[in-house]
Design brief:
mainly beta, 1 helix, four-stranded mixed sheet
């Protein structure tokens, strides 16, 4: 389970195996309006349930543009498979910092799906 105070959560499922994607590297960044550069906020790995608890605290989440970078190529290499996509970037906009945001990623070696979850 994600910490209660975490306003941003993600869950990565390996749809090829039907299991959570454990040990997948991800990086969370925010686009700085002043210079249009990405600032990395957090680097983490998915746990046994395919989640990264505590990506941001409530005070860190501000309106703006964010990016979740998932290192899918390394994950598939660890699994002994090749992948068409070396990484997945999910870029999204936060307009209301009081709402919880959930960004799931459904992953296979040759496709991925993401959506705004609840």
């Amino acid at each position: 389970m994600e910490p209660v105070g975490s306003p941003l959560t993600t869950h990565v499922l390996d749809t090829a195996s039907g299991l959570p994607a454990q040990g997948l590297l991800l990086r969370l960044s925010r686009l700085e309006n002043s210079n249009q550069q990405w600032t990395e906020l957090r680097k983490s790995y998915t746990n046994a349930d395919g989640r990264c608890p505590g990506l941001l605290t409530s005070s860190q989440l501000k309106p703006g543009t964010y990016k979740l970078f998932f290192d899918t190529g390394s994950y598939w290499n660890q699994m002994g498979q090749t992948s068409f996509y070396p990484y997945v970037e999910v870029i999204f906009t936060v307009t209301n910092e009081t709402k919880k945001l959930h960004v799931p990623l459904l992953l296979s070696p040759f496709s991925y799906t993401t959506y705004r979850g609840s």
